[in-house]
Amino acid sequence: MGGSLKEELGVLDGDSFVALLSKLIGESRYVQNNPPELVPQEDRVVRHLLDALAPYSKEQGGPLLLNHASFVEGRGNLIVEYPGTVPGKVLSFVGSHMDVVTANPDDWDFDPFSLSVEGDKLRGRGTTDCLGHVALLTELMKRLAQVKPELKCTVVAVFIANEENSSILGVGVDALVTAGLLNKLKDGPLFWIDTADKQPCIGTGGMIAWKLRATGKLFHSGLPHKTVNPLELAMEALKEIQLRFYRDFPPHPMEKVYGFATPSTMKPTQWTYPGGGVNQIPAECTISGDCRLTPFYNPIDVTKKLEKYVDDINNNIEKLDTRGPVSKYVVLEENLTGRLHITFDEDMKPGVACSLDSLGYHVLCKATEEVVGYVKPYSITGSLPLIRELQDEGFDVQTAGYGLMSTYHAKNEYCLLPDMEQGFRIFVSIISRLEEAAN
Question: What amino acid positions are annotated as catalytic residues?
């Protein structure tokens, strides 16, 4: 059965794929996601998907069930279902999103908002993340509808809105889950198709964005003994906070199992102050940064610890290391004490560790090895939104993707047609192997 199904479904029709991708990249200008200035209209992409798939719908005498599920005007999701014959047997491809990050044409070597082809390179905003995958899965579902193989498993593709700004709720996959439209996908493996480099991504990081504000008093830099220098306070306090963070959240034993390139980290990335002359000590400054956590640590636990560190430093601020003979954080004659305050962005993301025992994981690995020639699952402390929420809801989530990590969110984004062709063959192999397992 497996071999004949692979023969029936064959390989990617490159001409059809590129033609569809060209239409999708042509919409990328209008699906940039950076509100309030740029609010994507994902239905512009949905329109092209329906043009490709509607001729094979139940309404037109074909096998496909199409559900254009929209919760915000112009910002729909599309669920495409190829029904199987055995109730409760399902596999799904989810996560390929129809919005993109912004692109400034002035920074690119080619037009980001139209597809250009240079050899095997398919160039344009969204080719890797994630309109290339949208086109690829559309071609897969169209092929199933054309060939009409009798499958035990129902195959579902879910194209989602609003992945690039998941802090805005009620638009994309979160709304689909809340509405119960994805419930049946809990009956089988869910493959989240939005990573890169053709290998299973089995672990991603959690993220906490933080701001550490230090306050002193605006004063003449020639009289530093009369003030608290918030720059010095912030630097010393951050060093102490980082030391405590790495003590309490050390490398976790499971990180080796999942192959994480780095352990959990806390580091500064930005520094701001109100401005002023170089001969002025400012009244305050703020260091911003993030924590990237392997999925074996809970972001809520980390924020509570960070708050505790700051409270302890504030309560014992005279014990914090100083810099030079007149550097201090308590100036009694001025009735002045430096203070620290830490805050966190609301959009904290937990990490993800995919199940290494599930049928979905083993099938994805075998299909990848069969097509690519090797399998090397990897983990990164970059974060992917939404996946952990699906895990917590009871979905068996595995992740993969066939774009290029090096061009993810980057200028001059592109993907490679041979990689997408391999992705199509991996999808076919996954379906074939799960059919065999359903016997």
Answer: 99, 163
